[in-house]
Amino acid sequence: MKIAIIGAGAAGVMAAITAKRLNKNLQIDIFDINKSIGKKILASGNGRCNISNTQISDKNYIGENPSFVNQALKEFDFKAFENFCKSIGLLLDIKENCKVYPLSNEAKSVVSLLENSLETLKINLILETKIINIEKQEEKFILNSEDKKFKFYDKVLISSGLMAAPQLNATEDGLALASSFAHSFNPTYPSLVGLHTEFKYKEKLQGVKKEATITLYIDKQKEVEITADLLFTSYGVSGFAILDISQYAVYALNLYQNVEISINFFPQLSKNELLGILETLFKSLEDSFAVTLLTGIVSKKLAKVLLEIANLPSDILAKELNSKHIRTLVNTLTNLRMKVIDTQGFKHAEASGGGIRTAEVDNKTYESKLCKNLYFAGEVLDIVGNRGGFNLHFAWASGYLAGKALSK
Question: What are the RsdA/BaiN/AoA(So)-like insert domain coordinates in residue numbering (predicted)?
Fold first, then answer.
C-alpha cells in the first residue's frame, strides 16, 4: 500500500512513524516545501520546544467544536506521548507548571531524533516540493507538483498546517487541496499573537513590562480573565497574558465585534487596599513630587502616564493631590481600558485558528467523511490550543490517530 503525507511537521511525521511501525509493508512518501522537516517544531518555545503538557483536556482548545479533540487525547494522552518519545530516544523535562520540554532544552534534538526514526523506518522524504493539486482516479490519488506527477497513492494525509509564521514557508495550501474534495473551512486567523490597541499613550509606555490581570470584554460583556506578564509595545500590547487572551479576542475581531481589554496592574490588592497604600505614601512624603513616589510601585513611564490620564501636571507635589485625584489614579491602575483594533498578524503568531471544519472529519480515524482514504491532522483542522504545549500535543495526537488509520 502506498501512502502520501503532505506536510512534514509534527502531525505528518507522527502519522508516518506510527503507520510504518504498524505496517512494515507500507511505502510512505512525505512531501514538504521546506529543505528539512519540522520547521515549526524548531521555532517552538523560542527554540527550546514546549513539546507537550501533562494536563490536557478539550478546555485547552478553541474551534467550532473543541470536543472533537477528546478521542485523540484519550488514545494519545501524555503517558502515550512520553512512551513514544522514549521509543525514539527523546527524554523529557517535565516542569512544575505542567509544561514539557526535551531534556536537552533544544528543539533541534527533537527534529534530529524524528529524522533518525524516519530514516530507520525507510520513510521517503520528498522535500522542496509544493503539491498544488490532488486528483482521484479509480480509487487512486495522483499528486501534482509544479513540474511533476506523483502517482497511484492508496491514501493521502493532509497535515500541511496553516498560515502562522509565513517566514517558515507556512501556507494555507491544505485548505485549497481539501476544497477540491468538497471540504469547507472556517475563516483562519492568527492566534497567540500581540494585539494592536487604540490608546493614545501606547508609545509612551513602550517597553513597560509588569505582571497584571487582563480582562477581555466582547460587546461590553466580560469574556475571560488572565493573569500573566504584560508588555506594552509601539503597536499596543503583548506578553504572555496578551498571547493567551488573543485567542478569544481575535475570534471576536473576525466577527466584527467590539473588543476591549481592561488592565489591573495590582490584582493582588483590592481597590481600597491600593487606595490606602497611596494615601499613606503621599501623606508621609508630602513634599516630594507625586511622579517620583509613584515610581515606588510602577515604572517611571507608567507613573508619568498615570498623571497625564488624571489631567495632572507632571511636577505636582504629593501634598497637592486631593482624594479625588488619588481615586482617579487607583481606578486607572486597576481598570485601564483600551480598545483592541487588530493583531500583529500571522507573521508574529504562534498558531492559527480556523481551518477545515471538524464536522466533516471522523474524530476516531481523522478520515474525511466526504472522500474515502483522504485524511487530515494537525493545525489544518479547525482546532487551536492554548499556549503551553497544547498545539504541539494535538499535532502529535491527531497524527497518531491518522497514522493508525493509514496503516490499515
Answer: 189-350
